[in-house]
Structures are given as structure tokens and as C-alpha cells.
């Protein structure tokens, strides 16, 4: 049985030196920039090809400033709201910390985790998060009036696609995290409080 510090309930490579050179390089970059290697990345080393696809897609979706009309903070807020609906412990802890860091507001991070509706948000953010929540809990009910509400607060159709893309990605990752009992790095709990 895995110890309390386990990454997943799956057997993963135990020694980073056994990983392929490009993955080792990626991990060194994470350690340099973040001060840690996120456990989700370690989990994906179970299949190197999937690791590469996952990390490339995540980086484009969540970090690219040029091709997305949403701020990094807005994308992280979506990730936390989706994860709250799905009760995904890993993503609530990891991305709740990102909201705290990017906003400079520990309380906002906690509100996103527990109940985004209690946060004082601008109408644009409220509409964005309402859409992400509905897309998560009742995707079959999304219709043109939902998209129009986003347009009414200033989102373009491309922005709406980005909101949906981020929400969909985190619905996917939440399910993987649940399935393999993925645990967040403990350091997330203490950062940006």
C-alpha cells in the first residue's frame, strides 16, 4: 500500500534517471521554474508519449499568452471551478494555489475551491465561471442563450471556445486524477497564503 506521500495508486518509475532524456530535461526546467515537479507530470511518466502530449497541450492551453483571450488567472479560475464541481482533490489543491499566486489574494483562491459564487467577481468572470460550471455538471443543457450571455459581457466566440477548452481539459484531468488516486505535491498547501 502506498505511503501517505504517494503520487498515485499506480506503479510509476521511481528514479527520474530512468526516464527518457527529454522528460528529464523537462523535469529540470520544472524544478528550476517552479521549485518542484508537479505530481501530475510524474504520473504521466507511466506512458512517455502521453506525457509529451499532455504537457504540450497543458502548456499551450494554460500558459500561452498570445493565442488565448483569457488571462492566466481566468484560466486557473476555470480549472478550480470545474475541479470544485468534480471534487477533484488534486486539482483543487494545485490550481487553488495558482489562483492564490496569480491573484495575490488567498481568500479568492479559497472561494474558488469552496464556492465561487461567494466571491465578488466582475460580471465577465461570473458569467465565465457560471458557463464552466454548467458545462461540467450539465453539458447537455448548454445552448445558444448560454453562449450569448458570454458575448453580452464581452467574450468573443474564440474566447468562448477557449473557456470550453479549459473546462473540458480539466473535466478530463479530474477524471484521470480520481481514477488513479493522484495526490498533489504537499508544498501547494502552504504556498501563497
TrEMBL record:
It is an enzyme of class 1 (oxidoreductase). Keywords: Oxidoreductase, Peroxidase. The keyword Oxidoreductase applies. Residues 53-107 form the Carboxymuconolactone decarboxylase-like domain. InterPro entries: AhpD-like, AhpD_core, CMD-like, Uncharacterised_peroxidase-rel. The keyword Oxidoreductase applies. This is Alkyl hydroperoxide reductase AhpD. The lineage of its organism: Bacteria, Pseudomonadati, Pseudomonadota, Alphaproteobacteria, Rhodospirillales.
